[in-house]
Amino acid sequence: MVGESIRYAAFLAGELVALLGFGAASLHNRPRDRQLGWDEATKKRNLHLVVNNVRFLMLPWIRGHNLASRVLGATLRRLSRDWQAVYGHRVVLAETFVDTSRFLGTCYRASNWLCVGETRGFSKSGYQYRFNGRPKSVWLYPLSRDFKKDLCAPLHEPRKEGGFMILDVERLPLYGEGGLFEILHGIPDARKARGIRHKIESLLAIAVCATLAGARSITAIAEWAAEQTRETLKMLGSKRRPPSERTFRRLFDSVDVEELDRGTGEWVARQQQLAGDALAIDGKTLRGSRDGDSRSTQGRAEAGGGRKNAVHLLSAIVHGSGTVVAQVPVDVKTNEITQVKPLLENLDIAGVVVTADALHTQKDTATYIVKEKHADYVFTVKDNQATLRQDIEDLGLDATPPSAHHGRQGPRAHRDAGDLDKH
Fold first, then answer.
1. What distance separates the 2 farthest-apart alpha carbons in the chain?
2. How far apart are CA 354 and CA 332, in angstroms?
């Protein structure tokens, strides 16, 4: 199955009775498109909300009254919820094709699917469509009461004030030594060869540039790509139409994220012109990551090996733009404090102000930032470090921070990690 997909196994009284598979919707489906009434641009934007029932097998030795329609109904009732849990978005319409020369589609009709017409009898072979002389009937099943409203939503919804920042791609170091494409060239492509329309270097370059422009989600990356001119996309290695959101989701689901971070983090940091700016150290637990990365709903239920711990990441984030320039996983056997050095190790942050919460108010961390990374820091001191807090109050640092120069006042960072000890 191509693209996003979920497989189901149906059991009755502990016995396996049916297998089902749902995958990405068909790109060209005239009866469906005619029924929905959407245009090409809207279809390209919202096609990920449609799923195709590409496999449905009732095991031939199984017998039961209305069993096929009961299995379909039970699956459809949970399909959108499962899709949300696995891929981060719901689905609102299911489609399927029935070969009328072999089947009547009785179980679909009994499950309240609607037959909306027939295909013209073409099948895809590579990048071309060939006539096979066997038209199939097209069946649709709404998974949401407002499915037409959701699928025919405007191409560009109102954006928050400010939108994407203006990014002059021509001025970015894309090619040559130290360029973005030189970094991306070594990233392995784990996607299946079938159905690939965009090179991995092009997709990653678009994603990185979209991040620099302020994109904070996969949906926003796809929106940024859709807004770019043909010349800009060509400069980023895309010779076709802008990649869709589903294309980016498939890529990020398979790419080695840690290797991508190592390769692009420093490049992104350079483009952010960090000198004189601030970098925040922040840890987050990824919501919904406790069960691991299993893509099989059945596999989740039958794993039997205990629940996996949620993924916790420590990130370096540019103040203002919110761009993540580095991140490292925090193992359950350690904590964020020990991961600060690995996080900042490959970043050139000389002259940058590093901020962090009270957890990172540690002398070793401050010394590393100042002595080895030649940066400044602003840390928070709370009551759990009573002695340090009392020292700060005794020194009156609100009026004259230790690093103030030539009588200048203001909340500057400590240039020397040992300032407080000296006093």
1. 90
2. 25
In a domain, 240, yes or no: yes
61 compared with 408, residue with greater pLDDT:
61
* Number of domains the chain contains: 2
Q: Are residues 248 and 122 in the same domain?
A: no
- Looking at the chain, the whole-number percentage of residues with pLDDT higher than 70 is 77
Beta strands 278-285 and 114-118 are: unpaired
Q: What is the DSSP letter of 351?
A: T
- Asked if residue 52 is part of any domain, the answer here is yes
The helix/strand/coil state of 187 is coil
**What torsion, rounded to 10 degrees, do the Cα atoms 205, 207, 211, 216 define?**
-170
Whether 10 and 120 map to the same domain: the answer is yes
Range of the domain at 196: 159-271
pLDDT at 417: 39
**DSSP letter string over 370-422?**
IIIT--EEEE---GGGHHHHHHHHHHTTTTS-TT--TT--S-PPPSSTTHHHH
pLDDT digits 0-9 by tens, 217-265? 888 888 888 888 888 888 888 877 888 888 888 888 888 777 777 667 6
Which of these, 105, 21, 108, lies nearest to 56 by C-alpha position?
21
Q: What is the pLDDT of residues 200-216, one digit of tens each?
A: 888 888 888 887 777 77
Identify the domain boundary among 128, 151, 174: 151
CATH number reported for the structural domain that contains residue 134 in this entry: 3.40.630.30
b/e for 175-200, b at 16 or more Cβ within 10 A?
eeeeebbbbbeebeeebeeeeeebeb
Residue scoring higher pLDDT (346 or 35): 35
Task: Tell me: do 140 and 225 sit in the same domain.
Answer: no
Q: How far apart are CA 127 and CA 105, in angstroms?
A: 29
Which of 279, 347, 261 lies closest to 318, judged by CA? 279
Token pair belonging to 255: 């790419």
193 and 100 fall within a common domain? no
CB proximity list for 421: less than 8 A, separation 6 or greater: none
Tell which of 151, 175, 196 closes a domain: 151
